[in-house]
Amino acid sequence: MLSAITAFAVYVTKSFGYAGVGTIVFAESGLMLGFILPGDSLVFLAGLLAAQGLFNIYALSALVFLTAAAGDSTGYFIGKKLGRRVFDARDSFIFNQDNLRKTEAFFEHYGKTTFIVQRFIPVIRAFAPLLGGVGKMPYRTFLAFDLVGCAMWGVGVTVLGYFLGATVPHIDTYLLPIIALIVVVSLIPTFVTYRRSKRH
After folding, report:
1. Which of 19, 68, 114, 132 could join 150 in a cystine, given CB atoms 3.0 to 4.6 angstroms apart?
2. Where are the domains of the chain?
3. Where is pLDDT greater, at 117 or 93?
4. How far is residue 13 CA from its own chain's centroid?
């Protein structure tokens, strides 16, 4: 599974460049596909490749930030437009009920700061903006918190990849363990919050 994620991330970044990275980052929350797309590993890998000259790190960081924010806002307005009807979908491909329940539990626990934290958690990243729209949170409030999260994630993960790529010799040989670590760490908050919600 991880080798497939890594291979897909490498293929997208090297074959489609900026357009590929921007499309995947947008689709994660804008099209609610964050539970199947390798956003964290893709952005980290793109930063690593920037250290090798494939991308400009400043342009890449700006691209990730802007497409992440655009995707989140798209998800918000879909939720606002469709309202609670979104939750009536019975395990459709996108609106998976289990994933929605996990996101609701996360939102109940973290409140508005969900829109800062959500960027670092794949499943939550896909559905949190949608919940903001469904719950009729004022768009200005949503956007203020969301932009902070997009900046922290978009710039932070990208620059981390760039820094490691520039300072660690032959880091590409450790790519699979690094991506495995990113996936595991990103899923910990989702698991903990979901377990708490099940107990309550």
Report:
1. 68
2. 2-199
3. 117
4. 16
Is the four-CA dihedral 3, 178, 28, 130 of positive or negative sign? positive
Q: Which residues touch 40 (CB under 8 Å, ≥6 apart)?
A: 120, 122, 157, 182, 183, 186
Amino acid 157 reads V
Could you report the per-residue pLDDT of 98-133, keeping only the tens digit for each? Answer: 766 777 777 777 777 888 888 887 777 888 888 888
Distance CA 48, CA 34 (A): 21
- Single-letter amino acid, residue 139: Y
182-194: string of b/e by CB count within 10 Å (b at 16+)? bbeebeebbeebb
Q: How far is it, in rounded angstroms, from Cα 126 to Cα 198?
A: 21
- Calculate ∠ Cα 58-62-68, nearest 5°: 145
Q: Can you give the length of the chain in residues?
A: 200
Distance CA(109)–CA(107), nearest Å, equals 5
Where residue 70 falls among pLDDT bands split at 50, 70, 90?
very high
Question: What is d(CA 86, CA 62) in angstroms, rounded to the nearest whole number?
Answer: 31
Find the Cα–Cα–Cα–Cα dihedral 59, 46, 189, 116, rounded to 10°: 10
Share of the chain above pLDDT 70, in %: 70
